[in-house]
Recover the amino acids of this structure.
């Protein structure tokens, strides 16, 4: 299978490395808006060939969109214009509703499979790509019924061979669940970093005192602002909804401290402990 | 050296395991308020002998307090009453101001070294103890000048042999820095767990969709409520101070989303990225 990857950053680069390692792609073509990313991807052996996007769309059996959501929104209709009825196109993005609305009536809609591998790190760019990516995490397929059966099967096989467990959702539910379980974590982490940078003016103290607990809570604050701006734009309503709830929850902690309501503070923490039942 | 450890949970248990592994203790006596913890600690080989607290204080060269802060506040003056001028007492707690105020004029104040190893996990109890604990993290000594020189040297050597880098602070500064760098992380994580449990009523979705990012941000929400209630009580003012700042920071994200102020949202995230300079 000839694979064409548009966007050679963390996600696209990792996908290429895993496909090559597992022998799932005979040839990987790649392109990126950044010439530097292209050079790095070639040097690191992430892709076999650098091509322009038109060549990629013409020649790849599988076209992969691994670019920020707003860019995917723009380019996907044009890609679907240019493919034949045997090619398959997937995206790897964190939001789906707007993307799928846009191509709903496209004659080649069936060739596209909306895909979201729930994997990532706080790092970005091709230099952050990992050939150990994706395994053990969820691979979500949205609006399965809108894609052709052969395209779905190709993508299902692919995700399974990456070691992912398959989940199916409609795009609206997907965007709600990811706001709750992924997007809010990034906001809390970005905001925590800003909190600590604001309060703790002695950077040396942050460096010296940081424990594993602090590092894990603030880790996502290292994430790429371009990627996340796009996700927050796309999923504004759902993110606001969960962010409001999060501020409400924090205000409960604040109120307990102010009023020295220790029983309720203990209850809040004991309730939070329930996450142990769900995540070991 | 005969070591007596009061409190055989995560911290006390781990200290014992590391001391034994490194050959730094010839004999470890232990006691705990929970008979179950005592049994488990003995079964796991964490301690050599279970004793009552009076025997422990009488016989140990080094007495270690590894119990919640409020309990340490109560028991420390009595321990100092019972020791001779060659014994050394340390605590391992997360707050220091009240503890040290309480013993400021005690005739044996010099035998006590206020110690805070910046290490922990979200787990608790002797079964969570690890012989790989402490290494690579900060070992803080507070109000060094109030301790006898030989006691300080014993503790400094010990912390160095645990692989920790030494830091010195006064108790007030310690409680401020730990509020900023450790205690707020726990509140954000507890509150995030409650947020997600509130919004995401489908627990199966949390389980299936959880990515590494979510898991690391919410990890501390598994922490022991008893331990943390005590810390938040002791450090109420500093924790409230940083919690207010954190709510302010989150409200900036909220306002950006509401007003679609994307430039400022990008700025907020780019600023948070500065944590990369400090924590690799």
């Amino acid at each position: 299978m000839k694979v064409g990857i548009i966007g050679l950053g963390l996600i696209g680069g990792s996908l290429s490395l895993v496909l090559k390692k597992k022998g799932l792609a005979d040839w990987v073509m790649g392109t990126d808006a950044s010439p530097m990313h292209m050079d790095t991807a070639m040097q690191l052996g992430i892709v076999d060939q650098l091509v322009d996007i038109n060549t990629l769309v013409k020649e790849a059996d599988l076209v992969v969109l691994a670019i920020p959501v707003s860019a995917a929104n723009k380019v996907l209709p044009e890609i679907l214009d240019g493919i034949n009825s045997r090619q398959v196109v997937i995206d790897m993005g964190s939001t789906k509703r707007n993307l799928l609305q846009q191509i709903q009536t496209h004659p080649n809609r069936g060739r596209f499979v909306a895909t979201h591998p729930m994997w990532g790190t706080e790092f970005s760019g091709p230099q952050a790509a990992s050939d150990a990516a994706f395994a053990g995490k969820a691979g979500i397929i949205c609006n399965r019924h809108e894609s052709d059966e052969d395209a779905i099967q190709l993508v299902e096989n692919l995700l399974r061979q990456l070691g992912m467990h398959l989940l199916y959702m409609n795009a609206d539910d997907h965007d709600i669940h990811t706001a709750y379980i992924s997007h809010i974590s990034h906001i809390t982490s970005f905001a925590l970093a800003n909190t600590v940078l604001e309060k703790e003016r002695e950077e040396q103290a942050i460096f010296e005192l940081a424990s594993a607990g602090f590092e894990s809570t603030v880790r996502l604050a290292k994430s790429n602002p371009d990627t996340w701006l796009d996700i927050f734009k796309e999923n504004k309503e759902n993110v606001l909804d969960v962010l409001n709830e999060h501020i409400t929850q924090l205000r409960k902690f604040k109120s307990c401290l102010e009023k020295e309501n220790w029983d309720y503070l203990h209850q809040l923490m004991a309730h939070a402990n329930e996450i142990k039942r769900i995540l070991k």
Notes: Chain B has a mean pLDDT of 96. The domain at 174-278 of chain B is CATH 1.10.3660.10 (6-phosphogluconate dehydrogenase C-terminal fold).
